[in-house]
Amino acid sequence: MHVKAVQQILGLLLMLFSLTMLPPVFVSAWYHDGSAPAFVSGFLVTLLTGIAIWAPVRREGRELRTRDGFLVVAGFWTLLGLFGAAPLVFVAQPSLTLTDAVFEAVSGLTTTGATVIVGLDRLAPAILYYRAQLHWLGGMGIVVLAVAVLPMLGVGGAQLYRAETPGAVKDTRLTPRITETAKALWYVYLGLTIACTLAFWAAGMTLFDAVCHAFSTLATGGFSTHDASLGFFASPLIDVIAIVFMVLAGANFSLHFLVWQSRSLRNYGRDPEFRAYLVILAGAGLFIAAYLLLSGHHDHPGRAALDAAFTVISIMTTTGFTTSDFSLWPGLLPVLLVFIMFIGGCGGSTTGGIKVMRWLLLYRQGHREVVRLIHPAAELPVRLGDTVVPQRVVDGVWGFFAVYVVLFSTMMLMLLGTGVDQVTAFSAIATSLNNVGPGLGTVVSNFTAFEAVDKWVCVVAMLLGRLEIFTLFVLISPAFWRR
Q1: How far, rounded to the nearest angstrom, does the alpha carbon of residue 175 sit from its chain's CA centroid?
Q2: Under a CB-based contact definition with an 8 Å cutoff, are residues 444 and 457 in contact?
Q3: How many CB atoms lie within 10 A of CB 164?
């Protein structure tokens, strides 16, 4: 393992990340909210720490190995959470402890959207912008952005990209060079963000609200500038715009690039994961809308349909925006929505959750085993469309699922051990590990009721969810550290 090369990369990335604390300074100056010194302090602390890490090994020229890439990504996301919290520690209002500041920063960067801050409508605009910016940077993965930048600094990035985007189909390169792949994804991401901003602005939001909510929407994060989230605007048009862009953000960005490159929407229809994604969204939305009407919770079909569609899409894409309190919905609906959190969006999107692709492979594998009971000697490969899925990929999905269940159970038991009630513990880990935001029980709107130890458990869950478990979990394996 090349420890000095890892140290060099971490220092460079931390210096780059410090620059993201400068835009809020200009926002603070524009609105005269008095929070600029906190961001300047955060910038200096982060920059100087990055220089201190990088300077002793600045002449290191070794190429990263795959194992080094995992260590860089895990280390950098840990540093991101700690140093991203710096401005929130330095700012006078809201007054946050270190635990709360780290929780908020990690929630932003992992695009979870869970919060420990109340009174957003009275908060300094620079703080609101910074929270949304954390979402946007974490959405596609700031390490993928670094992959496009680091080659200019003489550092290769292929290993970083593989560690940042694990999964069954995420290693497919769109262009011959990894740097061009990262740039292509960011062009799509940036283009959709601009389109979403303009749509929100045209629908009646202020430009500031439009930018912040576009950042949160495309990152499928959920941080809002208002305590009532998108429900503050009470605008069906804004809800529909959010639905459209949440669906797009929940799809594979590689697929968006291919559609743009080929100038043909047929690529969407040919993708089995995207088709399954739309079917699940439509099926869950229709069921919940019908339940809301038949139970008498809604008496207007249009309102029921919009509420159901918005909430299902917001939860399944792990965005976490709300227009109504779904915990008050009748019958099985609140628990059903928590279960939907586990599905997530498509692989290669900004969403959390287990991902539609993995569920699809689990279903195909299960179907194959049933058929094998009838035809034991038959050769039955697992297929996605016309493609035969390698058995190693299927095994990897089962491994992911097994580790996921063990980690979920362990962290839920940890919360139960600190005195958290069962409903809250289950939904808190579900919303943290799946990077969603809202839950049930005492975390239906925020995590302020949690003790410090509970918040740290959720911080770990958010990081595990953002990096899809294996990127962090591999570091505790003895085999990782053997020569």
Answers
A1: 24
A2: no
A3: 27
